[in-house]
Amino acid sequence: MDPKPHTVTEGIVNDPEINVRTFHILDALSHISVFREKGLVVAIGLQMNSRKQEIRLIVAENIKVTARLVDHLTLVWRKLQSLSAQYQKNRSGKWNQSKSPEMTGDVGHSLKVEIFRAIYHYSLEKQIKRIDKLSDDLGRFVKELLNWRLPLDLQGFELSLRLAVSALLWVVSKLCDNPGGQLTKPEWELVYS
């Protein structure tokens, strides 16, 4: 109830309780940087300089950091910058201490799909291994769900779950047979949604 004053040093708030949010971002960036099915570890650090309006990502791997990884992170980062610019342009209302202004419509949808596709393609080897490991259990689970509920009776979370599992199994099976292949734009839209 009594907010503590925060000191800002080079754009980072000097408060461990607030900086915890940063770890989720770094974990997510590390997660999308792994492409091998096993034995690859990627760590990401972040430096911010508010005076220069600069953010630096520090990347470390348990093997040599490759140009492929740098290119992947650069591509994702640029797309995120574009998405941020679209958000900024489409914000309605003013900033408030407790929440950001509402977005109008489905801002940046095509960019979100592009980011999803870039990440998924980069980490395909890891995704295939993960799905191979879980596909039988996921398939049995959905089959059991459909035994308890008629497919037309599914709603809300159950319907979303069935669609997500179906899309995931479909995309991995399609790309597994031809890893160099591409899905069409409508197919990526379907998988993303």
Account of the protein in words:
This protein has 193 residues and is mainly alpha-helical. It has a domain at 123-193. Helix content is 56%, strand content 10%. It contains 6 helices and 4 strands; from the N terminus they run ββαββααααα. It has helices at 16-31, 67-90, 109-122, 124-148, 156-177, 185-192, and strands at residues 8-9, 12-13, 42-49, 54-61. Strands 1-2 form a two-stranded antiparallel sheet. A two-stranded antiparallel ribbon has the order 3-4. β3 and β4 form a beta hairpin. α4 (124-148) crosses α5 (156-177). The longest helix has 25 residues, at 124-148.
In short:
This protein has six helices and four strands. The protein is mainly alpha-helical and 193 residues long.
